[in-house]
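STRUCTURE REQUEST FORM
Protein name: SDR family oxidoreductase
Source organism: Haladaptatus pallidirubidus
Requested output: structure tokens
Priority: standard
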Amino acid sequence: MDSALVIGGTRFIGRHLVNDLLGNDYDVTIFNRGNHDNPFADTEGVTHFEGDRTNDSALEAAKSEVSPDIVIDCVAYEPHEVRAATEIFADVDGYVYISSGSAYATEVIPKRENETELCDCTPEQATDDSHDSYGPRKAEGDRAIFEAAERGVNAMSVRPCIVYGPHDYTERLDFWLDRVNEYDRLLVPSDGQNLWHRAYVEDVASALRIVAEEGEPGESYNVGDRQLVTMDEMLGLIADAFETDVELVHASDRELSTAGLSVDDYILYRDYPHVLDTSKLASLGWESTPVAEAMERTVAEHLESERDGSEHDPGRESEERVLGVLDTI
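Status: completed
Returned output:
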């Protein structure tokens, strides 16, 4: 049986990754600081190695203890962490770094690996943990993968777009799930046709394993739902999963401004389409879950959770004022 070391592994993508690896006959070790509840504490085939991934000695100890065939790095947020890991795990069969669609610097449709320009990253950005430096840091991590492959390391990266699904602690989609579940009328920014490519978390998990097994060293692979949906279509899928109906009311920036709101106040709204080409990953044999099925699973877990996405709420009272204005037009 092959062994896998997952750096991270207990919260969102890593949690689904561990389940995917178990389902494909891997012995799994999760490496993290133990700051979050471990859903695999009593799971056969999963062991926990406690340590801080920013401590190279701890990673070296984990490698010595586990002797992994593959390593999947869920929590490398700074480029120097990727460089250290590719040195430490230079002889494994596959090291996979989770990058991001945010690594792309150019707004084109679609964004393609090896074609679309990546973000530059200054030395200051490389160690800055702010949101503004996220894309540049991920891009520089990709460049660390390219450099490692040139040294003969079997290192690859996977670039997800917005990830959604069960156990999403970011609660980005939970905001919209809660809205559909609680209200008959939803205020939708702009015309509801914006495209922000999303990726179902179980598909991201399978992509990470498949790239570790089948990917080419030095290559990056985009991952996202093979069927793109607009915001209106996404809300329709959510309503279907709840077995309910909602009225979608579209509002421009001008209309939203009557209550002090803007289109940018709405999570998962993006003015320019963000679309990734996923054909390269599909060529390895990867498949995505039908979006209706993915949404049904997401809604089912949402109902069992206590998440409501309230941190992303622009304010229902303000929305009601906008709805009132639109009703008079």
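Reviewer notes: The mean pLDDT is 97. The CA atoms of residues 110 and 161 lie 12 Å apart.
Form closed.
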